[in-house]
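ok here's Carbonic anhydrase, seq below lol
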Amino acid sequence: MEHIISGVAKFQKEVYPSKKAAFQKLANGQNPEVLFITCADSRIDPNLVTQTEPGELFICRNAGNIIPPHSNQTGGMTASIEFAVAALGVSHIIICGHSDCGAMKGAINTEGLSSLPHVKEWLGHSRVATEVVKEKCGCAELNNNDHLGLVIEENVVQQLQHIKTHPAVAAKIATGQVKLHGWVYDIESAEIKTYDEATGSFKPVEDTDVETLAKQSK
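and the structure came out like this:
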């Protein structure tokens, strides 16, 4: 804990003074453009990866960047999504998976989760991803890394489908006020792959694509 406490002191003494005006403005409210849904994995830092400042991303995190399909049973993800879209008025939603995802390893091997009943139940929301990969590719034909990578990608695709069932999101998509984006972040290389719905595949974001993506996101 020592380095965390010293980090707080450094923030207050060195970082905050140079950004005091921005924090004073944020003290009175927030106006994020993006709802960023990602995994709770400690290796993922959305602001670092996107080089954004406080107030720019409304971040929701959980094991496996999962979005349960909408139901009448209220949960933290459901409430957060509704708030971000209907109250804050975000215009983009990014669902970001990542390499070496422990949650997806668990989804592939649920038998190993007998001592974690709540985790096992939660990962049931990723079962479609594991079944789709199994049907498309046949697990016996894949090595472990390839299998995991495909499940990570397919899980993002399925969560994109789940979020469309949320009424606030569906309404904004129908009127063109919200756009969805599926990402997979590679921890080792820093590569980001984005989901192309037209081709049903993920492709790396290259420097030459940034301007095009920016125009599409407006």
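fwiw The longest helix spans residues 144-163. kinda neat tbh
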